[in-house]
Specification:
By secondary structure, this protein is an alpha+beta fold. It has one domain (about 5-105). The chain contains 2 helices and 7 strands; from the N terminus they run ββββαβββα. Strands 1-2-3-4 form a 4-stranded antiparallel sheet. Strands 5-6-7 form a 3-stranded antiparallel sheet. The mean pLDDT is about 90. It binds zinc ion (ZN). The site of zinc ion has 4 residues, from loops. Zinc ion binds near residues 2 and 20.
């Protein structure tokens, strides 16, 4: 049975995990991204060193944004500066919480 637990929350971002399915979900308004545990930790590894200012682009509305590719070729994530910080703060917190859960449950 699926028993998702919220392991991080920041701004509009929530991260849940299900220890039965070994899946992590990132929820952001209309977007839901699902990872296996190992996909999630590789995604965190690959993205954690990225700096918003190194990838600045302009949105059609003239906002400063960063576009991040996903494993799905035609789908990208778009972040404002605030969304970017919330997103990666939530991922860092989720990773930390996963370590705690692993220590408690293994
Ligand atoms: Zn489940």
């Amino acid at each position: 049975m699926c028993t998702p637990t919220v392991i991080a929350r920041k701004g509009n971002i929530a991260v849940t995990q299900c220890v039965n399915c070994k899946m992590v979900n990132i929820w952001n308004k209309s977007i839901l991204i699902s990872f296996t545990f190992s996909q999630f930790s590789s995604f965190v590894d690959v993205t954690s060193e990225l700096e918003f200012d190194d990838y600045l682009e302009s949105s059609p509305g003239g906002e400063e944004i960063v576009v991040l590719a996903t494993p799905y070729p035609d789908i990208s994530l778009v972040f404002t500066r605030e969304e970017w910080y919330n997103f990666f703060a939530a991922l860092a917190e989720a990773t930390y919480m996963q370590e705690i859960y692993r220590m408690v449950h293994s």
